[in-house]
Amino acid sequence: MHSGLTEPQTALFCRSTESHFYAETAMQQKHAKRVEDYTTANLILIFVNLLWIFGVIWANFGLFAVILTGWLLNHGITRVEQYRASREIQWPSDA
Q1: What are phi and psi of 89, to 5 degrees?
Q2: Is 94 helix (H, G, I), strand (E, B) or coil?
């Protein structure tokens, strides 16, 4: 069967796949380093963003719109939490 590659192209292809194989095995041997925990920083940024978004909503639509938006966000987060808990019961994770 003819592959469509000339002899030099075949040799070059074999060398490139060999080096790719060695690079993959070298990457697999490296152990992952421990990463920093950015949870606090992310929660602070979420809080700051919610503050200015609620401020803009309050300035444009009034306090009732802010209360309604907060209630909708709370309700949505609760629904996501319930959904994830039900999925965890059905399909427990290994973690």
Answers
A1: -70, -40
A2: coil
Please give the full DSSP string across 44-86, using - where no structure is assigned: HHHHHHHHHHHHHHHHHH-HHHHHHHHHHHHHHHHHHHHHHHH
Q: What is the pTM of this model?
A: 0.55
Position 34 confidence tier, pLDDT thresholds 50, 70, 90: confident
DSSP symbols for 35-48: PP--HHHHHHHHHH
> Cα separation of 4 and 2, whole Å?
6
Residue 57 · residue 71 · CB < 8 Å: no
Torsion angle, alpha carbons of 63, 80, 36, 51, to 10? 0
Q: In angstroms, what CA-CA distances link 88 with 74, 76, 77?
A: 21, 18, 16
In this predicted model, what pLDDT tens digit does every residue of 75-85 receive, in sequence order?
999 999 999 98
